């Protein structure tokens, strides 16, 4: 973006705090992986690739996998993806730079997001951001010098009924206030366990979270609430008023069979038959266990 | 009076609602057993007859979309679920997948069977870690139970289902950008035609549906198309989750027949927060033109909201009271669109950039009335000229706010700054 074209009005919020971490351009992490790490990465990457009919579909999860080891997208991670997928490093870089969750520099062990989209901002997200950023001493996309915490101004995270919302390593922190936000980050920096509003018993690290995003479950799906209080509000109103969906009609409810004219040639991949083309039947050895 | 109809949300108060055991206790996967005894085309017909329209915003009839798949093609068919919920204000699919992922999984299996696909994907946004865990677990449980895999429940039907995690890009909610992303590329929309039904994922015939659309399918198979169509209005049949957020006493998820009004929903949610009044609201997310208190009685169905000048969208009802500066709200949305514009087409890439610059100036009280005309002119050059709906959506808050609140824009530059105190809009205003 050509930022110089616009009239300078005000200051970008959160751009003026602290010292950003100094990094080697462009990605850091140019030293090759040690043998053991490389083998583990290749094994996991091959499991990801096996989930898809075409290998390149594995690129996004593989980039999450790189972050689960390196913490951000490194040059060696880019090269690994390119090698295993048979594409160029430039093609991988083009993808890695498009998506906000892929970080071009290290983030904290706990990456803290504050929603500053309109509704959360209005409900207090702007104030939370201002106070938290001041409190921690870093701005947008910056990490503390000890690498514990980084902050990001995030866009709408689909939890608007819990506004203002925050995230830590993509776990939900609902109904936040500036005080709760500061206490949360203080706890994280002090090494105390914190639990999200809707999520597992404790927040995992950025690298652990990245591994789940790559499609390797951490066995914690059963932890935490099934729904937040706001999610149940309509259900409670319905219960209090005795409201329910219309009763289901008795007896079979078979749909009218389609008229013969609408039934055309059988499809190439009929149910029960192996799917054709270059797709390996049952090619999901690495499916989510 | 319209009453609530908990269907998808019905079991959300059960602590184990997200497990297979919890879902089956409430009758889960019975629709699948029934579906596998039916001809696939009979399920397509039932979905057509039900009147189900896409719940992801556009409202296209789901059964008709399925019917667009060519009867024969050299490539396999695919079903892709759009779980990239990112439209500002929209927050229904995420709690649905957190509390009841199995209703989506069951819907995927039935829908894939109906369209004769053997490979399905759930593309879920990456910023919702616990939802991803729940989806991964639900899919694994369904494999263990023999609901996914080879020869499902002895029917001879095979299906593979992959949970695919995105990486932070609103544009991937656009269906063809989603396909590019799922194929491992930058998420940029494709030129249509060909439509995904003809050439979608890997060039194969592909159906892409929203989470809530697919999750509604088991109820149609179990209870019948007539049951589904008995709810809602003439052309907007069935139920949907309405998400109330912002300055409302009890924000949350309210599942109701289409056609319910905001006045009715607000009454259920305790009204606008105490001591305040409704100023403006979005009927279906930030990409739908703003409404005011004049629109409290508009039936929230596709036709009525459209006739009143907006769009039903995703039923994301963001409520703003009189403490909120509309210029600030629109600036922030415009910054969002500028951030999320994929850069492929000039009207959207440059237009959203200039929106941001001009609105910043206006909010700071440094603009002029001429700027409003420039904004409208700019909007004319984005709307209908952008490659996809992201650019069109970006114009909605700008154009509608100038139309409804022109005086408020003028007050900014007459007073040399914003006349509102943002502290009064916060959740803790008056308590701190």
TrEMBL record, chain B:
Annotated keywords: 4Fe-4S, Flavoprotein, FMN, Iron, Iron-sulfur, Metal-binding, NAD, Oxidoreductase, Quinone, Translocase
Catalysed reaction, written as an equation: a quinone + NADH + 5 H(+)(in) = a quinol + NAD(+) + 4 H(+)(out)
SUPFAM superfamilies: Nqo1 FMN-binding domain-like, Nqo1 middle domain-like, Nqo1C-terminal domain-like
GO BP annotation list: cellular respiration
PROSITE patterns: COMPLEX1_51K_1 (PS00644), COMPLEX1_51K_2 (PS00645)
Segments forming domain NADH-ubiquinone oxidoreductase 51kDa subunit iron-sulphur binding: 327-372
Enzyme class: translocase
Cofactor(s) essential for the protein: FMN; [4Fe-4S] cluster
InterPro entries, per database record: ComplexI_51kDa_subunit, NADH-UbQ_OxRdtase_51kDa_CS, NADH-UbQ_OxRdtase_suF, Nuo51_FMN-bd, Nuo51_FMN-bd_sf, Nuop51_4Fe4S-bd, Nuop51_4Fe4S-bd_sf, Soluble_ligand-bd
GO molecular function: 4 iron, 4 sulfur cluster binding; FMN binding; metal ion binding; NAD binding; NADH dehydrogenase (ubiquinone) activity; NADH dehydrogenase activity; quinone binding
Residue ranges crossing the lipid bilayer per the database entry: none
Domain of life: Bacteria
Signal peptide: none
Pfam families: Complex1_51K (PF01512), NADH_4Fe-4S (PF10589), SLBB (PF10531)
EC number in record: 7.1.1.-
UniProt family annotation: Belongs to the complex I 51 kDa subunit family.
Function of the protein: NDH-1 shuttles electrons from NADH, via FMN and iron-sulfur (Fe-S) centers, to quinones in the respiratory chain.
Protein name: NADH-quinone oxidoreductase subunit F
Gene that this polypeptide is encoded by: nuoF
